[in-house]
Amino acid sequence: MLDIAFIRHNAAAVAAAARAKGLPLDVDRILALDAALRRDKAGLEALKAERNRLAAGFVAADEAARAAGAERSRTLTGEIAALEAGVDDTGRALRGLLLTVPNLPWEGAPVGPDESANEVIRVVGQPPVFDFPALDHVALAERRGWLDLPRIAKVAGARSYALKGRLALLEQALLLDTSKRLARQGFQPICVPALAREEAFVNTGHFPFAPEDTFELARDGLHLAGTAEIALNSLHAGEIIDERDLPILYAGFSPCFRREAGSGGRDVRGLLRVHQFYKVEQYVICRNDAEESAHWHQRLLANAEAILQDLGLPYRIIECATGDMGPGKVRMNDIETWVPSLARYRETHSCSTLHEWQARRANIRWRDRQGRVRFCHTLNNTAIATPRILVPLIENHQTPEGRVRLPAFLRSYLGGEAFL
Fold first, then answer.
1. Global pTM?
2. pLDDT tens-place string over residues 175-232
3. Topology classification of domain 4-98
4. CATH class of 115-414
5. Domain ranges across the chain
6. Which residues contact 20 (CB under 8 A, 6 or more apart)?
7. Does the active-site annotation cover 347?
8. Is 239 a catalytic residue?
9. Are 127 and 241 in contact (CB under 8 A)?
10. Given 19, 66, 273, 405, which residue is catalytic?
């Protein structure tokens, strides 16, 4: 959400941002509702002031003046009630539209309608060249008895999975090790539920933009979240945080659920695009300072890169285009990791800066040492998501014998052995 005063004075820039992000937005309607709301609020204050003046002079007035005053007071009460109802209706309509206003992208974002306009800004590592017939992750895992897709499909339907044996242990080791390394860097590990109320999805901006991608539990008034960010963002909703307590750094672990609506037939084989997965999410609340946000953006990105480097995986950093970054993002970088069976890079991480956009929706503020209260900035980044990361991990580290080499830092979790 953007400040209505900012929209009022930067209407052209807001309209341009909506066009760049491919979102329909009636800025004129927003400004008209804003003007009507301010006019009606001013009228309401005037009517209340008149009623107060009548009440103050009632005792000293003569009988005729009191009668006239009482009649006028009754009229004013009716007019005030009608105007209050109008103000409420206009306010709700305006807030509904404000929730659809996108953030302004930073000046370095490529302008384009979708991921086709994304730019590669850095490539790290070289894809492996195999001198044997390489297998994809499904064939490798099924050969070792680590994956059971047909049986679990009978239980949970398509795009479900069941990891077994050492691959199940590897998934847990990755999640635990990521949480431990973030804790060493000052991020507080926190486990949050996947269940959340609709308001939490509004606070992050997932609603009203993409409700179709969530699983709804209508009887309970809850949805299943696709990221710990949804719970973490609303954890401090309505709070005023002292400057001494900033930044707040979380390493949020949660099960995650996504319908993958609109994904069509893409990546239906194996573990790349499943309905349920696990993730450790980096989440930051900091002061509303652009330089500080930029610092944390790079820090979050570096943390994710360090994990991929320790895993020995080739990857590239993407500068996301305006039409691919999502409504609330100021800046978004994806990390795409090399998947040999697809002979291309696939997204495994995403890093986002949102400035005040989420904090305004959730009403998260901070108080500086001079007592001034302002909205915070928020950022988030995938530290690791499983089972997706297992796809490049298994495929890039396979051997001619169909075994999988373990990155050195994970071996202690799996009996010290060099192979999975």
1. 0.93
2. 999 999 999 999 999 999 999 999 999 999 999 998 989 999 999 999 999 999 999 9
3. Helix Hairpins (1.10.287)
4. alpha beta
5. 4-98, 115-414
6. 105, 111, 322, 323
7. yes
8. no
9. no
10. 273
